[in-house]
Amino acid sequence: MFVVNDHLIHLEEEPMPRDMDVRRVRELLAQVKTCRTPVDGTVYGTLLNDRAALDALGGAVNAPPYKAPPQAPVLYVKPRNTLAGHGTEIVVPDGVEGVQIGGSLGIVIGRTACRVNVDEALDFVAGYTVVADLCVPHESVYRPSVRFRARDGFCVIGPAIVARRHVADADALNIEISIEGKHTLHANTATSIRNVARLIADVTDFMTLAPGDVLTLGVPHGAPVALPGDKVRVTIGDWAPLDFSMTTQGGAR
């Protein structure tokens, strides 16, 4: 079991995460600069689960080799080297102008989920978190490239996991991305093709999710690009925001 009673946060200087109320979380974030990721499982990204993102492909979805829109969730893994926490500096790879910032709802699994019925899917959720799913801008969507999506630090998570009981409707949450203090993306989880329960059911129909795993709902269409030196903030609903910054190889700590 992976249990979140309130808000789970893992401060950088502490060996174990803390479970506390949101007021205390905000107080701590006002005092500390960095956090570790609050999750310990595998992170699975989801592609083309945003209606506008799928529509933007137009007739390309009917081209060879697939000749049809995806019939099952399109998943990829964000390996352990990609995981980074609140306040981290993320390196923009050499030869790349900027990095695309995808803001997504992270669904944190609470107990082993295998062939879950859609009506019971939310019972397998421990909580939710903010995920900044980063990638080098590229065209391929059906075959996610490890070289573009699995760079060090390319999955920023946190600052906390919000217990499921605090989230009245995970399918109606605002997602905001700000770069250098300017709002560059406003989206809502309501635009997802598969909502949270349906996504869990469809994924667990062919693979088992373990306690502590994270399944992202998917990146909304129009993800902005951050440049070296930019400060980025990703916010979902009224949760504590996830902050990080972009740097070059020579500027990294």
TrEMBL record:
UniProt keyword Hydrolase, yes or no: yes
Identify the cofactor(s): Mg(2+)
User: Carries keyword Hydrolase?
Assistant: yes
Q: Which InterPro entries match?
A: FAH, Fumarylacetoacetase-like_C, Fumarylacetoacetase_C_sf, HPA_isomer/decarb_N
Alphabetized GO MF terms: hydrolase activity
**Segments forming domain Fumarylacetoacetase-like C-terminal:** 42-239
Ordered alphabetically, the record's keywords are: Hydrolase, Metal-binding
Which Pfam families does the entry mention? FAA_hydrolase
Q: Give the superkingdom in one word.
A: Bacteria
| Cited NCBIfam families | HpaG-N-term
Q: Give the UniProt family note.
A: Belongs to the FAH family.
Which PANTHER family does the record match to this protein? FUMARYLACETOACETATE HYDROLASE DOMAIN-CONTAINING PROTEIN 2A, FUMARYLACETOACETATE HYDROLASE DOMAIN-CONTAINING PROTEIN 2A-RELATED
Indicate what this protein is called per its UniProt record: Fumarylacetoacetate hydrolase family protein
Say which species the protein is native to: Paraburkholderia sabiae
